Amino acid sequence: MPSLRYPATAADYRDLARQRLPGFLFDYLDGGATDEQTLQANVADWGQVLLRQRVLVNVEGVDTSAHLAGQACSMPVALAPVGLAGMMARRGEVQAARAAQAVGVPFTLSTVGICALQEVMQAVSQPVWFQLYMLRDRGIVQALLQRAWEAGSRTLIFTVDLPLTGMRHRDTRHGLSAGGLKAKAIKAHGVLSHPQWLWDVAVRGQPLSFGNLSDQVPGARDMDAFKAWVDSQFDPSVTWDDIAWLRAQWPGTLVLKGILDVADAQAAVQSGVDGLIVSNHGGRQLDGVMSTAAKLPAIVQAVGAQTDVWVDGGIRSGVDVFRALALGAKGVLIGRPWIWALAAAGEAGVHDLLTRWQRELLLAMTLAGVRSVADIQPSHLETRTSP
Predict the structure, then answer these.
(1) Which structural domain range is residue 284 located in?
(2) Structural domain tally of the chain?
(3) Which of 251, 260, 295, 340 could form an S-S bond across to 17 if both were Cys, CB 3.0 to 4.6 Å?
């Protein structure tokens, strides 16, 4: 039964998304790798970071604005790339990009989004960031880079933690990671049991193809054929030499996403990238690794003076944004929260969520006695003591 309350949090939007999406799509968004231990730790560990409240400090004119990749933002938050976003709402990437622009934060388009970069760029006036994987066919990589540059994108988020796709058991149960008649029947049942999604997205949201790859991938309109192609293209032989090659190909801002180790962060700096994102792919790749909240401080200490360090994974509120900044991040990317809001309420939902998060961040700064994002420091955190 649809909820009659107003959504106020990411969790509220998650509940609404569960109601409105076919089960296989919701679990594609919501699930993680194997037993989902890292997925749970990503969320829980931010809750262990305690803020230090201060009073009677002049906090008139608190300012949440910042710069990410040289782009002015209303707060240090960007929408992370999410594959298949256009399956969650009609032309979903376009709706999310519009909401991000209205609030004043960057939007990142996934290579495996439904809407092509050109379509998204035509819908907004601010630059759209583009996300890419290293594929075996370097000609396709070069073509995508050229198209992104010509479309006006100047920031490339390059994902490095996907030499192979993680084991995501929810996708197996729903038939999303399998072919054959049984898998098709399971997915068809999920679609037919959600007639509103069927009409609004599956029918009115056409074409449901992988817009950025439609002229590169044989059978890009067929999910099973596309999965087979993607599996053949992920390249487990990629090394730092390939990042050097990529740096030579891309004249704009280059940020590596998927760094979880100090040694890798140091290698990223040596490769000449402009920034890195501490990330474990939202717990969707290797289960049992540490949360990003736990890994962030050491990476910041090692390379934070040399490059911009951002973080994603498990961030669920504006208070979590404050926590990440206090641990040394220059900014955060969010994935599941914005896609839940998109699935639940489209562009308006994403706009509402981001606006609430900005207010939460402002309140956290105010009650911590901080007037600017640049002033948020580890000293604004508490160390837990026994009662």
Answers:
(1) 10-378
(2) 1
(3) 340
37 contacts: CB under 8 Å, gap ≥ 6: 283, 287, 288
Residues 258-301: tens digit of each pLDDT: 999 999 999 999 999 999 999 999 999 999 999 999 999 999 99
Q: Is residue 178 part of a domain?
A: yes
What CATH number corresponds to the domain at position 230? 3.20.20.70
| Distance of alpha carbon 313 from alpha carbon 280, whole angstroms | 7
- Catalogue the active-site residues: 281
Handedness of CA 28, 33, 36, 39 (dihedral sign): negative
Span 56-88, pLDDT tens digits: 999 999 999 999 999 999 999 999 999 999 999
Q: pLDDT band at 222, cuts 50/70/90?
A: low
- Are the CB atoms for 117 and 151 separated by under 8 Å? yes
| CA-to-CA separations, 221 to 120, 159, 210, 302, in angstroms, rounded | 19, 23, 7, 44
Decide if 133 is inside a domain.
yes
- The DSSP line for 277-310 is EE--GGGTSSTTSPPHHHHHHHHHHHHTTTSEEE
Q: Assess if residue 271 is contained within a domain.
A: yes
Report the phi/psi class of residue 234: left, alpha or beta, with left for phi > 0 and alpha for psi in -120 to 50.
beta
